[in-house]
Every structure is written in C-alpha cells, then in structure tokens.
Amino acid sequence: MNQPKLNLSPKVSDEIRKTTCYMCACRCGINVHMKDGKVAYIEGNRDHPVNKGVLCAKGSAGIMQVNAPSRLRAPLKRVGERGEGKFKEITWEEALDIAADRLLMIRRNDPSKLAFFTGRDQSQSFTSFWAQNFGTPNYAAHGGFCSVNMAAGGIYTMGGAFWEFGQPDWDHTKLFMLFGVAEDHDSNPIKMGIGKIKARGARVIGVNPIRSGYNAVADDWVGITPGTDGLFIMALIHELMKAGKIDLDYLARYTNAPVLLNNDEKSPEYGLFLRDEDGKPLVIDRTTGKTAPFDQKGVRPDLNGKHRVRGITHGTVFVKMAERYLDPSHAPEAVAERCGVKADKIRRIAYELARVAFDEAIELDTPWTDFRGERHEKMIGRPVSMHAMRGISAHSNGFQTCRALHVLQIILGTVEVPGGFRFKPPYPKPVEAHPAPHAKVTPDTPLDGPHLGFVRGPEDLALRGDGSPARIDKAFTWDNPMSAHGLMHMVISNAHAGDPYKIDTLFMYMANMSWNSSMNTSGVMQMLTDKDEDGEYVIPNIIYSDAYSSEMVAYADLVLPDTTYLERHDCISLLDRPICEADGAADAIRWPVIEPDRDVRGFQTVLVQLANKMGLPGFTNDDGSAKYQDYADYIVNHERKPGIGPLAGWRMGENGLQNGRGAPNASQLDNYIANGGFMVEHIPDEAAYYKPWNTAYQDWAVDLGIFDSPQPYIFQLYSEPMRKFQLAAEGHGERQPPDHLRERIRRTLDPLPIWYPPLEDGHVDPVRYPIHALTQRPMAMYHSWGSQNAWLRQIHGRNPLYLPTKLWEQHGFKEGDWALVTSAHGKITVPVAHHAALNENTIWTWNAIGKRKGAWALDEKSPETQEGFLLNHLIHELLPPRGDGLRWSNSDPITGQAAWFDLRVNIEKTSVPAETLPAYPAQGSPVPQGPDELRWKVGE
Amino acid sequence: MTALPETTAKKLGLVIDLDTCVGCHACVVACKGWNTENYGAPLSDQSAYGAAPKGTFLNRVHAYEVQPDTGAAQTVHFPKSCLHCEDAPCVTVCPTGASYKRVEDGIVLVNEDDCIGCGLCAWACPYGARELDKAAGVMKKCTLCVDRIYNENLPEEDREPACVRTCPAGARHFGDLGDPGSAVSQLVIEREGVDLMPELGTKPVNKYLPPRPKDVLDEIDVLSPFLAPVAEESKGLAGWLDRVLEKI
Fold it and tell me: Chain B: residue nearest A349 by CA?
C-alpha cells in the first residue's frame, strides 16, 4: 500500500473567541475559531445553556454572513428619489447631525411625530428605554407581526408562553405534542429535545397542515386545516372533561377554577371575580364552607363552591368551564369536518393524552412547600408536554386558540410539573408583575412610563382625551385592546393614511418593511414613495439602520449602517428576551471578536450617540455630561433600579462579585468573555418545579433580583381583563367602545377560550377562494438574512409553491409547471411542486426566499429574483370591504397580531413566464455585487 | 487501478438515524465550514452571489416522500455523504492511486497531490458521494474529518466529525463499525440498521437507522381505546360534577 503520510493533528486555530450567535433569534453560544485575526470556523459552544455545543446550518454559515458583499460600508444620504437606491456616502458626524437635528425638533414640538420601530431587535429593553426618554409613544418591536398571540395568550393565562418563556421537560416527558411549528423557534433546543426524547422511546404528535421538519419525524401527524386548531383543542378538552380525566387537585390548588364569579346577568359586575376588601379573588374553603382569599394559608378551594351575597349568586370558574366545554358543540364529531381530522382520531388522541398524563404519572422525591404553606413530600409529574408558535398564533383567532392550548395543558395538570411544561426565569410572571402600557406625551419630556405592557381593563387603553388612539399603530385601542407587542405591520399604512395622525419621521431598525416583513408589499412600496400635492413625501422622513443592503435600504433618506453580529457588543438580558433554561437563569453578551473593516457602527451605540447629541434624560448626568459613551458602557453601567442592570452576572456585591443584584462592575464584560460569553445561575432542586407556587423558587427569584418580593399567583383559566372589555361593550363603565366595535368585542373577548372562524373567512368568498395558503420558515434560512449567504442560498435559493395531491391532480400539474395564485387582494405567478404530505386544501411555500433585484448584492438574474417569490403580495393589512363602509384590519381583534395565516386563495395553471410575478425593476445598490468565485480559506 | 486493503484494523463510519433527522442541514454546513478551512483545497463556490450558485459540498441532505398503501404520506430526510465502502469502486477505478482506503481505519480519502481530476471515481460511485471541485480541479469527498478525529489539538470530546458534533437532533453517530461491541454497532443491532443499496455489493460502512412506524393513532378499530364518560348524558352537568368531584 502506498498511503500518504497525513498530519492528523493540524493546528485548528490561533484562538477561540466565544460569543453569541445572531444568525437567527435563538441566540446559541458559539466558538469562533480565529486564524491570523480572521474568522476561520464557527462551531457551537458545549458549555452554553441554549445549544450545549450543537449548531444549526445558519449558525455554521455565520462566516459567510460576516464576509457578505451586501454589508453596508458607510452612512448613506439619499440623492435620488425614494426607492431608487441612489445614495452618497457621508461621514458619521454628518449623519448623526442630520438625524439629531431633526429628532430634536420633533421632541421639542410633538414627540409623537417620531415612530421608532425596531424589527428583529434583541435589545428591546435598551431601545425602549431610548424611546421612552425621547418621549414618543410610538415604539415597538416586531412582535405584532410575529407571535404576540402566543406571548400574550401565555402571559394572560399562565404567566408565560413557549420558547423564551418555557420549554418541555425534555428529561422526563413521555409525550410531546407540537402545534403549528415546522422548523421554528426555538431552533436548536427543539431539535435537541426531539432527539433526546426519541432516543428514550417517547412519542411526538405533530399538529400541522404540513408534514415537514419536526412534523416529518413526529410519530403521529394531524394534518389539520389551518385556523381550526382551537376547535380541535377544545374537542380534546371536551373529551377529557367528559371522562373526568382532568387533574382536579391541581385545578383546585393552582388555578382560578375554584374562584367565585358573579353570575347575575343584570349586575354591572357580571362575570367578574368576587373579591375581598384587599382585592383578592375569593374561593369557598372546603374545610369551613366559607369564602376565603385564594391564597390564604391552609385554604382548600372548592371547585363547586357557591355563594350568595347581597342578592347576587356566585359560582366557580370550573362550573362555567364545564357548562361550556361539555356542550355537544365541542364534541369531536361536531368539529371533525371543519378540522379535517376524523372524530375517532381526536378521541384516540384524547385517550393518549389522558393515559400518559395519569397512568404514566411520575414522582420525584423532592419535597417542596407551596405558597399556602403546605409542604409536599413529592413532586408529581404528568409527562405530557406541548409547544406551539406562529402556526397557531398568526391567525385572527390565534389569541383564543393559544389560550385554549394552555387550558388543555392546565386541565391535564402538566404545567410546571416534572415531565410537563416548565417556565424559564424570569418567567413565570403574572400579568400583575408586568407594567400596563403608557402613552402620555409631553414635549421635551420622557414618556410617562414603559410603552408596552399588559392591559387589565379599558382603563389601561392608550387613548387620547378625545378617545382617539394615542399610538400610530393603534395598539391598546378598542380595535385590539390587548396588543402587548404593538402592531408594527400597521405603522406605515397608518402613517401614510394620517390615521390616527401624521408623523414626521419613521425610524426603523432591522425591519425589511418594503419587502418580506410587510403584508401588501407593493402597496407599502407605494406608501413609502407617495408624495402629497406639494410634492413632499407623505411620510416626510425615513431613517433606517441595517447591516446589509436589504430591500428597505432603498426607501430611506438616511441609512445608518450597522455592524455584523461578530463586530459588536450586545447583551441578551434578563430585562428583555432572556436565554434562560428551565433549570437556571442565564444571560449573555456579544462582543467584537473582529473589528469592522468598514465605516459602520453598532446601532445601539449610534442610539447612545444620538441621545448624547440631544441630551436625552436617562442618558445625561445632572451636569449635562453624557452618562454612556457607547453601548458597551451602557451595558455595564446602566442600572434600571439600584443593583439591577442589563447583565445579571458578575455584579459587585458587598463581599465581591456575585450574580443577580449588585453594583456595576467595570470588568463585567471581561468576566463574561472569560466565561464563554454567558452567565448561568442554577435553580436549586427544591425550586425546580411548581415555580409559580413554590416558596423556594419565589425566594430564589427575589434573591437574584427577578422580583422584588415573592409573586405567587394562580393560573387564569378565566381571564378577568377580557371580561372587563366585554362588560364595556355591553355598556358598563366610563370608557366605552365605538358602537361599530361593540358586537365584535362582545363576541371575541370571551373570558373563557372560544373558537370563531378566521376573520378573513367572513370577508372573502370561500367558494371563490377555497384554498388555504401558508408560509414556513426553513431551518437553514432566517427571514431574508440567508439570501446573501453564499452557502445557505445554495440550500434555499428558490421556493416553489407546494401543492397537495388533490390539487396537483385536479389541475393536471406536472413538474416544471407554474400557477397563477389569486387572493381577494392580489395575484402572483409562481413555480409549483407536488407535496403529498400536506393537508388536502392547503398550499405552502418557504418564507422570505424571494428577493428584489438589486438588493443583497446578488446578481439581478439570481434564482431568488427569478424563481423566488413572496406570498406577502397576496395578503393585505386590511381585509377586503364587505359593504359596511368600514375597513377592518387583517389582525387578531384581541391583540392585533397580523393574521398572515388566514390567507385564502384560488389557483390555476398558467403558462411559464420569464420570472415570478409581480416583478419589480431593480433598485440601485449601494454596494457592488460579490465575487463570482469563493475559495474561503483564511489559514495556511 | 488502485488496490483496496484486504482488511482494515477499524471500520470507522457514521450511523445516521432517519427516525430523528429533521432535515435541518446543520451537518451540511458544518461540514462545508470545516472542510473549506481544513483538509486539502477549500470547498469552492461558483457564482456565489450570481445566477447559478453551485459549490462543492461533501454532505447533502435530500428529502423524499413515502406514500404508504393506506394512510398519510410521510417525509423522510436523507443525509448522504461518502459511505466509506469496504469494496469501494471509487478506489479501484482510480488511475493514479490518488483515491485510497486507509488500512488503519478504513476511511476512503483522496490524495489531492496525485488527483488529476479525471472524475472516474465520481462516475464509479453509485451513491453520487464525490464532487469535483471546480476551482481546485481535484476530487473532494467526505474525509470523516480525519483531521479532527485524531487531532491532539482538539479536546478529546471534539474528536469526532464536524457533522456529528453539530447535529442538533443527535441523529448522527460516529464510531467503529468493525467492533461489534461499539456503541454504533450496538445501535445498528438494536434499531435494525441497514446498508444503502446492499445489492450493489459495495459493503458500505455507514449505516442508516430506518424510521420507526408512523401514524399508529390512525389505526382505529373496535379494539381502539377511547375515554369513557363519567356520567350519563341524561344526568347533565350536576351529575357530571358530582361524579367528578367525588375524586378529590
């Protein structure tokens, strides 16, 4: 044999720098291998709480993001017309002066003339702090068009939702049920979890119209009709309740099932809780037969309590639930056809849920003490876990569906128990521990409080004195009272319409609003470029920050170029969107593992510099000097309240460095870097489960600074804030909704989960548009960011429209065919492909693959422009008119969540065009196109 | 013609679990990254930002649909790279001796110094597991990360192929399939792992674990278990409450 001699131990790198990934929002830990000062290879960090060493395709392709030719190079000032993409490069000094001068003028006159919205921002506790000190009420991030239904449904029901809020107990669960998630957040932990439970022989049920990704490996697949998940879930609740397969002890102790409700239809407090003088909801104590506050020491709440006081009868939430869900209208056979799921299969799944929850219950020998002072010798586990994201939330009935899903989890007794669903700190956190929204504007003055929050009732709506919306996106109004994340998808449309008022400056960050982040893409491009009779732009001034030459850049008057994720400081903060695990609190940083080779600055540093130029309160010392030089300085030295800052790790305590509370530590970032870029503080065993009620957990959370005092609470199966909005719609109270919204509020803000058809069904002819159309996010691509990535675009460079067998055969499609797809709003012409593992009335495609010519430094003939497309053209931010003289928003009427997935279409075969339609002329590119050939080896 | 060793001391290879692979392409890109920076010529990309992007990859994931006789169609994700065959036709066809199978561990490699880029090996490989790098003009293939698995500059736990280290679902396993006691051999026995296209006689070292049976909850017959109601319909809510609340 003539084998060459190999060097089996080549040098891997000069140095490993550990930071946090930003190739999607999951924020895994990464090891960046450096050679000669350049990035040579990126792998997962084994010590990191999120990914424990693994890394997805996006993360591993980060090296191609950092060298992407689409990276912006310097601040840009528009010289052509908006949308043309013609710019001149200017200095940072000039850019900051232009921005600060205009913003300062706005602030002195009317701060609400600034709309500041920050896309897929992970520094919301900072950007909101900036906006609050500026004084505009018009701030939010992208939650309104992403998953606010999921987040708000979870908070209002049980003090937390999925993903960042909690996770299945992967180590103990025996049955994992996944709703509407194909390949979504959180990316690596779900894959790791599925791998882990499958290795143990635990089972996965996937509920999704499309059998791809996680649903492809699910043991059982429920190919449900889009928008009917709520019906399906309530049929499961019906079956479980009817069979008595519900955790009565859990419901009595840890939920508001035993809380007494006013049952007198004539009372102005009908449907509200009976409360004591301290405002505490009351239950009947089974020991005494008398009313008692729900949290009184030793109380044993009665699920069937009754109480009559001052002529008014009161009964429990539990009885109300039984009345509703035992009704035959919720029986499997009553919903099977609408769901596209056989009644027997629904029954079979209900049986399986009950069998695993009760017959396979587990016990951990860990004693714990609850908030009523009762000690429990064991932790009882019901090993059924669930997860959901956009699939159920991006419907106009999504909030109620999310609530229904949590009710299903709760009646099985599976939340915060071994084998079930577990919160991640700083969750669980009840509504009461969150702020209410604030929107009071005073010139030259900060806003009166945080912008976003959780309304408790009509008194918390963000309305002006005349009842008109205080916010440009109409968040927290009667149109969508519980819009906890704002409505970013309505900002441009409302600003263009001057409804509720005109603005001066639209300031956005990381939000590709002229392309894949908007409904009605063509319309938005028009709104951004429209001029009034004086020849001025209807939206007068647009400032945009992005690291890359995205479609939105062409629509800005001033472009502030951001860095890539390896060139910047960031903090992934417990004050914000944390990266905690169920077993511990964690936060993390990004730091510049390489220096930018362009004249660019991290956006958050730019905000600090703008604040300093404007002398914003919160950023300015009493002597007028700047508190912070840049974002890193803010991260280390800002205190939200004494002892609590953006990062909880390595703070200065009385006896040295400690996690949690403490004074700023000048070396904090170095401490993080030395620890791999993150901090984890583990939860003690006796505090690991039953967190909302577990005194050991509550005390631990107070010690760490998550709460200032213990915050035990019970789950809100019945949502009293929703009932308060219904009461207003019924004519009670001072603040009254406009008449045209009364009926809708009464119908949709039901305090117990209900199902109603997606609103588009009431506006769009279901015979003319019989097909549901969806998008899914590919695992190897995150929104538009992957398109510039030389490696990832080879995996997803084009996106056919996938059709089920029934439609494929009905229309006689063959491979290579194209289709004309029509909605009530628009038309697209796109390539099709056959996908058998699909709900028979549903078509789908990948999200955000299609690109506009001229963007992202791609060739104008790239497959993304020729054979890629957006479904967004078919979706409008308003529903079609239905003759009532009103235009209804295409959003959930409770939260304002963009109803992307309500879309109905028709499809027909068409001749093959030159490229996907609609096609747009190329926009000018501020960066040159990338090289033809890549041979990216940075070392020897 | 290049000769294969009669036996190899070890049979290093991969065991890929098709029951767990979610098709995320993490392995594809980790492989691309490691092997662009390491063994031999970088894996190049042509038309990287152009109209027809096409680069060299040593590992790719394909998706197939399976339509059973009854029931719903299924999706199977199928990662594919060199299977390091015992009777590797790509080696015996090589005119220069550049392709070879290592005696010590059975890894099939290309000695790039001797490769003339003739492409015969890619033609001979029935699995389509070799790709000619357009920029370097040499044949590229999975090395099983030969520069990782013995690399003393890496912590011991990292001495495994990049694709295995990164796989989020834990669907990829690495080890000695020549040792019946190894974890990978045991996994193959337990899960009834299979060869890819055994009829070709290439004796691949890599094994695939088949997907477990799916959709058992659709198999509904008279014996299927359903939940029984706790009270007769006629007794209504009060009867239901009485019966249910008896339990606590």
Answer: B217
Q: Within a domain: residue A295? A: yes
The predicted-structure confidence for A617-642, as pLDDT tens digits, reads as follows 999 999 999 999 999 999 999 999 99
Among A247, A323, A934, A938, the strongest candidate for a mutation testing the B interface, having the largest count of B CBs within 10 A, is A934
Residue A931 sits at the chain B interface (C-beta within 8 Å): yes
Euclidean distance between CA atoms B16 and B208, whole angstroms: 5
Q: Which long-range contacts (CB under 8 A, 24 or more apart) does A649-654 make?
A: A649/A587, A649/A675, A649/A678, A649/A679, A649/A681, A650/A679
For residue B58, being part of any structural domain is answered with: yes
Find the CB nearest A244 among B24, B135, B230. B230
List CB contacts (< 8 A) between B243 and chain A.
244
On whether the CB atoms of residues A833 and A799 are closer than 8 A, the answer is: no
Pairwise CA distance, residues A160 & A711, whole Å: 14
Do residues A399 and A442 share a domain?
Answer: no
User: Which domain, by its residues, includes B197?
Assistant: 12-218
Domain harbouring A541, CATH code:
3.40.50.740
Quick check: A1 pLDDT over 70?
no
Q: What pTM did the predictor assign?
A: 0.97
Residue A30 with chain B: CB contacts under 8 Å: none
- Evaluate whether residue B241 is within a structural domain: no
Number of domains in chain B: 1
CA dist A632 and A630 (Å) reads: 6
- For A850-904, the pLDDT digits (tens) are 999 999 999 999 999 999 999 999 999 998 887 888 878 899 999 999 999 999 9
Instruction: Give contacts of A 18-37 with B, CB under 8 A.
Output: 35
Residue span of the structural domain in which A555 resides: 76-149+432-561
Would the CB atoms of B26 and A56 count as touching at under 8 Å? yes
Q: Which two tokens stand for residue A868?
A: 């890629």
B239 touches chain A (CB under 8 A): no
Which A residues, 35 through 64, put their C-beta within 8 Å of a C-beta on chain B? Answer: 35, 40-44, 46, 51, 53-61, 63
- Judge: A795–B75 Cβ closer than 8 Å, yes or no: no
Instruction: Judge if A120 and A212 occupy the same domain.
Output: no
* pLDDT at residue A761 tops 90: no
Our count of domains for chain A comes to: 5
Residue B1's pLDDT is what?
63
Nearest to B29 among A57, A188, A349 (CB): A57
Between positions 7 and 66 of B, the ones with CB within 8 A of A are: 19-26, 28-30, 32-34, 36-38, 41-42, 44-55, 57, 63, 65
Q: Does any CB of chain B come closer than 8 Å to the CB of residue A198?
A: yes
Please state whether A221 falls in left (phi above 0), alpha (psi between -120 and 50) or beta.
beta
Tokens (6 digits) for B204: 């691949």
B64 to chain A: closest CA residue: A835
CATH number, domain with residue A829: 2.40.40.20
Two tokens at A244?
């008595």
Beta bridge partners of A368: A376
Mean pLDDT of B123-143: 98
Give strand ranges (E) for A597-646: none
The tens digit of pLDDT for each residue in A128-147 reads: 999 999 999 999 998 888 89
pLDDT per residue as tens digits for the range B139-185: 999 999 999 999 999 999 999 999 999 999 999 999 999 999 999 99
State whether ipTM is beyond 0.85: yes
Provide the shortest C-alpha distance from residue A578 to chain B (in Å): 21
Q: Looking at the complex, does the CB of residue A11 fall below 8 Å from at least one CB of chain B? A: yes
CATH of the domain at A378: 3.40.228.10
Residue A50 sits in a domain whose CATH number is 2.20.25.90
For residue A56, give the nearest of B49, B51, B168 by CB distance: B168
Confidence band, pLDDT 50/70/90 cuts, at residue A763? confident
Residue B74 to residue A717: CA distance in whole angstroms: 37
A528-575: pLDDT as tens digits? 999 999 999 999 999 999 999 999 999 999 999 999 999 999 999 999
Q: Among candidates A690, A721, A718, A687, which has minimal Cα distance to A704?
A: A687
